[in-house]
Amino acid sequence: MKLTDLITEKTIIAEFKSKNKTDIINELIDLFKDDPRVTNLEKIRETVLEREKIMSTGVGKNFAIPHGKTDAVSEVICAFGRSTHPIEYKSLDDQPVHLVFLIVGQDSQVSTHIKLLSRISRMMTNDDFRTKLIGAKATEEILAMFKTEEADYIEL
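Given the sequence above, the corresponding structure tokens read:
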């Protein structure tokens, strides 16, 4: 499994409509309204926002990874969004966020969840990749960038 097996053009937001942290997270979660892998969208929302209260998922370098584990999904779901405008996110480096990758997995898939978090964190340490994502204009372009960046990574 790769991240690019989990995200599609339907789960990418090329430009967030929202301008604050909670609304951005909700925008990403709302992408899964009619997804058959989701049994309870509000439980996902609650899980991710509760996790965010524990500690900000703004990991630095203009990037955040809101995430959570719940029985409200039948398998891992992921979404990605970006903003050309800086979003205050209370990140660990006190910098605003432009790129947000949502990961929601099942309670029983702790190992997969950790591997996915690690993979996206590793990809986002590439300054050039982050810069290209911030400058992307369309969902197709963003998805292609992820595929190119992840091409040399091993399966999870």
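Strands lie at 12-13, 58-60, 63-64, 67-69, 77-87, 97-105. Try to locate this feature in the token string yourself.
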